[in-house]
Amino acid sequence: MKINLIDYIKKAGETTSLSALEQEKLEGVLTEYMAMKPIRGVSGTKDARLTEVRGGLFSSLSFIHLKKRYMPIAIILALVLSGSASYAAEGSMPGDLLYPVKVGVNEKVGSALALSTESKATLDAKLAERRLAEATHLAADNKLTTVMSARLSNDFEAHADRAVANTKELEKKDASVAIGFASNFESSLVAHETLLAEVNAKGETDNLRALVREKALLVSKIRMNAEGQAEVSARSNESIATRKATGVSEVVKVDAHVKEETALAMGRNVKIAIKDAETILARVEGRLDDSTLANAKAQIRVALELAVKGDSLYKAGDFTSAFHAYQDALVTVRKLSVYLNASSGVNIRILAPVKPSPQTESDTGGNSETNDDADTPPESREILLGDIQVDSSANVRTETNAGSVNVGGSGSGRVNVGL
Amino acid sequence: MKGGTEEDFLAVFREHYDGLFRHAFFRVSSRERALDLTQDTFIKAWDYLRGGGEVKQFKGFLYRIMHNLIIDEYRRKKTESLDDMSDERRALIDADLAEGGVWETEERIDEEELVVKVREQLGNLPPDYCSVVTMRYIDGFSPKEIAKMTGETENVISVRLHRAIIKLRTMLS
Fold first, then answer.
1. How many angstroms separate the CA atoms of A369 and A300, rounded?
2. Which residues on chain A are in Cβ contact (under 8 Å) with B9?
3. Which of residues 250-289 of A touch B (CB under 8 A)?
4. Residue A406 main-chain phi, psi, to 5 deg
5. pLDDT tens-digit series, residues A388-397
6. Dist. CA B67–CA B150, nearest whole Å
7. Are residues A18 and B44, on separate chains, in Cβ contact within 8 Å?
8. Taking Cα atoms as reference points, which of A20, A211, A202 lies closest to residue A132?
9. Residue A409: exposed, middle, or buried by beta-carbon count in 10 A (0-12, 13-18, 19+)?
10. Among A109, A279, B123, B159, which lies 20 to 30 A Cα-Cα from A102?
11. Which residues pair with residue B102 across a beta bridge?
12. CB–CB of A95/A148 below 8 Å?
């Protein structure tokens, strides 16, 4: 029998297609994006077309017409139609005129553009964090009313719950991705909780802080479960050792591969997180006093050292220890990024004196054995512990990070919405 | 699409979305990522048009955007290991050089099963090989068009294509 491989490649192509539902969703996203960012100087017929497609997306602006605030409405509409409102609204806070544009338009566009589970989880985590940053800012300015606090709490909870649900989905598909995402989100929530505590002069953030801790615990639970699945927790090391002892070598091989992938994914995450922290620090360093700046730089240095340590351990084949070194680095820089991004109105004391260099923890040199055989496997890290010590001499004044909706410039599928 | 409208762009979308999705699917081996990449490609194309850009030939333009997005993704994901692995893979490929894409077998082949295997193994080809096979046989571009899109010479593309087919055949054997 003669086989022409090229025919089979073509057949494989012909039998791969988008479903009608996927096509419809894709077209819907594109239509909304075009309506949000129309080509300038459209004709009358196109105006009609744009009005028609904007219906759903812009319905959140209908409140404007009811309020009959003609001058601001005219300004907002002009801004919206020229495409500038989304940018102007990004830095708005609850109570500002453009805040509904930020929440009702910009964030909805972001949601519509997030298709994959990872993109959805990332976006919801980012929006949940936004609500916390807004609450911190308002509390610092003594403007956090009971009504606003309740609204922000509800909105935070809705986004956090969706992020948690999507993290669970991610865990089923790829534990290493779920671990990376959960470690990021959990670290950020812990940092936001610390910030909310700092501005809690009258107890106005008590309820929100309790909610943040509740969600952080949920994320922590998923992360630890996923770490168990990926065989990087202390308990699973024992189970591998047991399996090895009983001679189930194939299973061990598979597990070692999963551990390697998980460590590699965490390594990639930490390198991105360190770069992010460095970018934020470069932007706000002019507003930091000398000791705070030195402290922030030292924390980044510690994270870099941990990442280097992780690389050495990874090369030596000790994937479990490499994973934990990377994860420690990630937690350090994620928290730092949240603190540095804190609102300009917040006087906070967050940058603790740097801990001793991680190099002293263990020698990463010639240990080429994997940790599977270690008598005392490393403990699973507890991100939720409040490990940031407060340095009463260090005040940080930073400004709100006015970001933008980034629609896949790198093709990564991540939707970044800055605070 | 000079002076075009949203409707024109949607027509372009309807003409090319399936082909672009297929291209992405074979190169990233993930339906979800392929969907994301297809969406990103059209959004980038729209942004280009909004910025006053002019497109004479949409098919090539869209595939070039997608190709760049996929390259970005490879770079992002495999910052360190890609180069090392390429050498390793190249050594394997050299060792596996054989006759070509057509072979004789005594055994009865289940055609559907072979199609499924081809689909799976395409994603396991080294990125450079996967991209040329996808562009040539899935998307239907000529070696000259592929060369233009990737910035390589036509000769390089032809040799790569030949080696990719041999590699794929070895993987399927």
1. 29
2. 30, 34
3. 264, 268, 271
4. -100, 110
5. 333 333 333 3
6. 8
7. no
8. A211
9. middle
10. A279
11. A4
12. yes
